[in-house]
Amino acid sequence: MNTFGEYLRLTTFGESHGKGIGGVLDGLPAGLNIDESFIATEMARRQGGRNHYSTQRKEPDKVEILSGVFEGKSTGTPLGFFIHNTSSKSSDYTALKDIFRPGHADFTYFYKYSIRDHRGGGRSSARESSARVAAGAIAKLLLKEFQITLRSGILSIGDVTGEDIDFNFATKSEIYALDKKVEEQQKEAITQARKAHNSIGGVAIVSALNVPIGLGEPLYYKLDSAIGSLMLGLNGVKAVEIGSGVECSKMRGSQHNDAIYKGGFETNHSGGILGGISNGDEILIKIHFKPTPSIFIPQNSLNIAKEECSCIIKGRHDPCIAIRGSVVCESMLALILADMLLLNSASKLENLKKIYAKNS
């Protein structure tokens, strides 16, 4: 399945070492200003090769819009776009043609389809996430019309966890660290993992502000269930927490319930979502990434003939996928909220009457 969303639907295509990665964003309202410079800025945040804390595969990731935009505005028709691959090195994967890399999708893809693109993982590569960031940038342009803003950053690298959450500092940090006090320790943890030809996991936080009350559909397209499903659909994500997350299992109801006053909620253990519907408070999500499976240490594996062998990986890989992954998670949340916002416009008869009254 290569499409997600109910009203605002994104379909992506392409492989890591193919001609490029692309997408079709369908359901976008007509008349939205499509700011291509903003899209380029968002793509640069995800881009590799910026420093030695990320992969050295550096590509311009210029988004070429193919359809759905006229004179700088969306037309209401499917918005197609394409991102050329310009720095693939398929030779790095020749020796792995018949070997399953531990921790990767090689094994499961082969047994599901009886064929796989061994060059960088093909479709299973995180390279595909560039399409999600491009589409997420467009979704952010829509959310901006309603003053909804998104932020993200890195809370933990390995066992080095920050206490303060400063999204402004994260925009200046090379690793998008949220806590200035532990940034150098987190950088050192990444550096040591790289020097050991290894990798390290991390935790990202994504936040959304000014989200109106009412986004989310009962019972089968709840806002929190959509967030959990789509975040877990990203490469390397192994757990998602909303609000107090796993800590709520240690609490009593009197501790976890968010008291309600005229000015709002006293606390935000719910993470801005009640009954699967946004409550107007900040939406706060933690996303846990596993260590990058591509490491430069010999590992035991099997080949397609079911023979035991040694797997030795080459190439250019992120020592910590959580860093660039945080940007992708922010883009995914933008797409989810934009979809829910458009769905919500049809949730009340009075909303529909206003639309038709305007057009009559």
Please identify which CATH superfamily we are dealing with.
Answer: Chorismate synthase AroC
Helix content: 25-40%
Domain count: the total is 1
Number of strands: 18
Overall pLDDT score: 93
Main sheet: strand order: 1-2-3-7-4
Helix/strand structural class: alpha+beta
Describe the structure.
There is one protein chain. This protein has helices at 36-46, 106-113, 129-144, 167-172, 183-195, 223-232, 253-256, 321-344, 349-359; strands spanning 3-4, 9-14, 20-26, 63-65, 69-70, 73-74, 79-84, 149-157, 160-161, 202-209, 237-242, 260-261, 264-265, 273-274, 277-278, 283-289, 299-302, 308-311. It is α+β, with helices and mostly antiparallel strands and 360 residues long. It has one domain (3-359): Chorismate synthase, AroC fold. The strands form 6 sheets. Strands 1-2-3-7-4 form a 5-stranded antiparallel sheet, with helices on one face. Strands 9-8-10-16-11 form a 5-stranded antiparallel sheet. Helix 3 packs across helix 8 and helix 6 runs antiparallel to helix 8 (321-344). The chain is globular. 43% of the residues are buried. The model has no long low-confidence stretch (mean pLDDT 93).
